[in-house]
Task: structure prediction
Amino acid sequence: MDTPDFPDEFKAEAGQGADALAFFQRISDLDWTYVSPAAFIHPGERTGHYRFGGDQLLVDEKGNSEISAEDYAIGIADLLERGAHPRSRVAVAW
Result:
């Protein structure tokens, strides 16, 4: 949301997400994982292919950041099942 190309219509929601992350980061007695989506989430097929990143937007070799809603959902489910990335922010994208 801090880039010049970030759409104005999504800034309020993104700001709320940033506020929520800051809140969780101050909590010491709760295990949490904050999942950040790709820049473009769209309906599509579940391919089972996705990757996890850290605190930065995940982009591919062409600079695109996207994922299907189906792969995003299974990525989140996999994070929960594995207990991966506790007390941290993780990005999910292709």
